[in-house]
Write a structure and sequence with these properties.
single chain, 168 residues, mainly alpha, Arc Repressor Mutant, subunit A, two-stranded antiparallel ribbon
Length: 168
């Protein structure tokens, strides 16, 4: 899938080569997961883009967020975040509320319909993942779970020392 390995590789010859081979395998798995994730979301009743889903998740987790804060969390410019909110509001997924103490501030909230869309997508994704995990050998699925927990811990910086990724 990724095509990162190229032709003429002589196979892993050191720790970095083994880690690179694992990284290539992981990249292939992530591509497969991304496809699974996207297909599950697009099968939902409400057809929402990945950006729209992400915005709804953020607003659902932080009700009352303002447009600037949403734009920052999504790494978008204010005009793009505003257009995104306009589309979600038109679809009935988002409501804007005036701040009670600041007339210039607007709070953003996922509507009941928006939360239901998030729940449906989460269910569809979980169901597809469960089907894929069910097709694995139990020991492989358990090893994958342990590996993912370790990977997430490393991303969060909870694991011990180690070299910086730029040292490879």
């Amino acid at each position: 899938m990724t095509g990162l390995s190229g032709s003429g590789d002589s196979g892993p010859s050191g720790p970095q080569d083994g880690l690179m081979a694992l990284a290539v395998s992981m990249a292939d798995a992530v591509e497969g997961l991304t496809t699974l994730w996207s297909v599950a979301a697009q099968g939902a009743r409400a057809r929402l883009s990945p950006h729209q889903l992400r915005a709804l998740r953020i607003m659902d987790g932080e009700p009352g967020l303002n447009l600037t804060a949403l734009a920052v969390r999504m790494d978008l410019g204010l005009p793009a975040a505003s257009r995104l909110c306009d589309r979600l509001e038109a679809a009935g997924m988002l409501e804007r509320e005036m701040h009670p103490r600041n007339r210039r501030a607007v709070r953003l909230h996922a509507t009941r319909q928006g939360r239901q869309a998030l729940e449906e997508v989460a269910y569809r994704r979980s169901r597809r993942l469960a089907l894929a995990l069910g097709a694995m050998e139990p020991a492989e699925a358990e090893a994958l779970g342990r590996g993912l927990r370790g990977f997430l811990a490393a991303l969060d910086g909870r694991t011990g020392g180690g070299e910086d990724a730029t040292d490879f």
